[in-house]
Automatic annotation (TrEMBL):
Protein known as: YchF C-terminal domain-containing protein
Coiled-coil segments on the chain, per record: 129-156
Record flagged with keyword Coiled coil: yes
Keyword field contains Metal-binding: yes
InterPro entries, per the entry: ATPase_YchF/OLA1 (IPR004396), Beta-grasp_dom_sf (IPR012675), GTP-bd (IPR006073), P-loop_NTPase (IPR027417), TGS-like (IPR012676), TGS-like_dom_sf (IPR023192), YchF_C (IPR013029)
MF term (GO), any: ATP hydrolysis activity
Gene Ontology cellular component annotations, sorted alphabetically: cytoplasm
Length: 357
């Protein structure tokens, strides 16, 4: 399961966003002194359409783990707690305040999204830089005593990483081969993780204000995804009783998709994951697998026996199934294909695995 950590400065709206995404409400007066776990279904309109078509006895969406991390403030940064928590996630969602509200204080006295995102990014870079500098010291000390080829290779890599970080570039932008990856696999680097910037805007800016060019430029320069959300408004939508009311409210405000749908879509893209489905009258289910995975690997996501005894994958394309109306029409049109071990699973594929153990 994918795990995304939510970070941000005090009063950025990260707790509100976490509560919307997970449905978990923090108790009043409880300080945000440690990571708070939660989870949420991945929203995908294709899943809903398949459930409507098959009317299964049960259905299961893929899920995402979400973790609300401690505030990014001097005390937690100095102690290092926040960084230890970030190391444990697959991707980071950085909530940045862009809304004006006199009743909600700002730690720096004014709202400035560019300043805030730069400050947090700088802290993450410094964390990795300090680790690399200490590692360089240890390796140089060890190599003065005894020459070791593996340590020499690692030292050369650390010098490259240090130069990269000193150029204020996150490590996710640094080219590394398989040997490099193996050398640092166990190290607690933060800027190697994929990152989504969630700009928390005010109600008046919904549907009218595009993401500022300066923010997009910075995101592109640091290989970050970007989205806009009004956490306050979405928390109000979440309190409505019916889906019809929610849809009507969203249309009135010009909100095309909810924050969870946007965030999970961007996280899947960033982490290189695609969705595939299994269908039937008994169950419709959504699964996640690494992009460019062959069919047996996707089968293994469902169950290890399916990968071990894989014979063929019967593949239906979602768009073709919807266009034909049902499986019988799809089969008649000659668009239900049998594929072997070399078949690469694509986003939206519907698989039926044939296997023998």
């Amino acid at each position: 399961m994918m795990k995304v950590g939510i970070i941000g400065l005090p009063q950025s709206g990260k707790m509100t966003l976490f509560e919307i995404l997970t449905g978990n409400k923090r108790k009043d007066g409880v300080p945000l002194s440690k990571a708070t776990p939660g989870s949420a279904d991945i929203l995908d309109a294709r899943f809903d359409a398949l459930v409507s078509m098959y009317e299964p006895e049960k259905s299961a969406r893929a899920r995402i783990d979400l973790v609300l991390l401690q505030k990014m403030e001097p005390e937690t940064i100095a102690r290092g707690d926040i960084f230890r928590d970030i190391v444990d996630v697959d991707a980071i969602c950085h909530v940045v305040r862009a809304f004006e509200d006199e009743s909600v204080y700002h730690v720096d006295g004014s709202v400035d999204a560019v300043r805030d995102m730069d400050m947090v990014n700088a802290e993450l870079l410094i964390h990795d830089q300090i680790f690399v500098e200490k590692r360089v010291e240890r390796l140089e000390k060890a190599l003065r005593k005894i020459k070791d080829e593996a340590q020499q290779k690692e030292l050369a890599l650390m010098h490259r990483m240090l130069a990269h970080l000193e150029g204020e570039r996150p490590l996710r932008m640094m080219a590394m081969d398989a040997d490099d990856e193996a050398l640092i696999r166990s190290y607690p680097f933060i800027t190697r993780k994929e990152m989504v910037l969630a700009l928390n805007i005010g109600e008046d800016d919904i549907g009218t204000a595009p993401i500022a060019g300066e923010i997009l430029t910075r995101c592109e320069a640091q290989r970050m995804k970007a989205m806009q959300v009004s956490a306050k408004v979405e928390s109000e939508i979440a309190m409505l009783d019916t889906d019809e009311e929610k849809k009507e409210f969203m249309e009135d405000l010009g909100i095309s998709e909810m924050a969870l749908e946007t965030l999970t879509r961007l996280c899947l893209e960033a982490l290189g994951l695609v969705s595939f489905f299994t269908v039937g009258k008994d169950e419709v289910r959504q699964w996640l697998v690494r992009r460019n995975s062959p069919a047996p690997v996707a089968a293994g996501v469902i169950h290890s026996d399916l990968q071990r005894g894989f014979i063929r994958a019967e593949v239906m394309k979602y768009e073709e199934l919807m266009a034909c109306g049902d499986e019988a029409a799809l089969k008649k049109a000659g668009k239900m294909n049998l594929n072997g071990k070399e078949y690469i699973v694509e986003d939206g594929d519907i698989l039926n695995i044939r296997f023998k153990v």
